[in-house]
Design goal:
The chain has a single domain, classed as Gcn5-related N-acetyltransferase (GNAT) (Aminopeptidase, 3-Layer(aba) Sandwich). It has an eight-stranded mixed β-sheet with strand order 1-2-3-4-5-6-8-7. Helix 5 packs across helix 7. The chain is globular and about 50 Å long. It starts with a strand and ends in a 19-residue tail after the last helix. Helices cover 31% and strands 30% of the residues. The chain has seven helices and eight strands, in the order E-E-H-H-H-H-E-E-E-H-E-H-E-E-H.
Length: 200
């Protein structure tokens, strides 16, 4: 669906359901991401007919696998836009890098940035929101590096390691996405002529 010089974002294939099954049972992902998507996979199973539509045919979501270019082996994680509201032009972002050796290689940051550019072009989104646990400093820093701003706190909304933690609410809006886009060499990825004069 989209690519830069280091990675590509692709739709999952049938054989990739095994990856979601493995990621759904990965304790670190549950601890750091807390994904409802992976929770349902863990409860139902990746091949369950109530789960598979979330991967391929949810009209309000887009799930793409993060595939390093030139590397053999499976995808290192996924990026997901969900609760997409085309009329109001906003959605929510979820990023999960599941390969523990890849956590500090920047795959999540780059994949999120690429997905945001695609979302601007293909869906016309003007706002994207993300939530992160207050103890997940890697994800907080990744969101900030991608131009997100913290705008709220869900106080003590997460129970982890014997204590209650805040969930931080971040967002990025159209003007900020355009500014971030200026630092990249992404081509226009929409289906029609770009309506934004300041994009390639």
């Amino acid at each position: 669906m989209a690519r830069n010089h280091r990675l590509g974002l692709r739709l999952p294939a049938l054989e990739d359901l095994a990856l979601f099954e493995r990621w759904a049972h990965e304790p670190l992902l549950d601890q750091m991401v807390g994904s409802d998507f992976l929770y349902l996979c863990r409860i139902l199973g990746a091949h369950n007919p109530d789960f598979t539509p979330l991967v391929w045919s949810d009209p309000t979501a887009l799930t793409l696998l993060v595939q390093p270019l030139g590397a053999t082996g499976p995808a290192v994680g996924y990026v997901r836009l969900y609760n997409i509201h085309l009329l109001e032009q906003f959605a929510f972002l979820e990023t999960a890098v599941a390969d523990l050796r890849s956590l500090r290689k920047g795959w999540g940051i780059e994949a999120s940035r690429l997905l945001l550019a695609f979302a601007m072009d293909a869906f016309g989104l003007g706002r994207v929101e993300a939530k992160v646990y207050a103890y997940n400093l890697l994800s907080i820093n990744a969101l900030k590096r991608n131009g997100f701003t913290q705008e709220g706190v869900l106080r003590r909304a997460r129970s982890y390691d014997g204590q209650r933690w805040d969930i931080l609410v971040f967002s990025i809006v159209e003007e900020e996405m355009v500014e971030q886009r200026k630092h990249e060499d992404f081509p226009y990825m929409g289906f029609w002529t770009s309506r934004r004069d300041d994009l390639p």
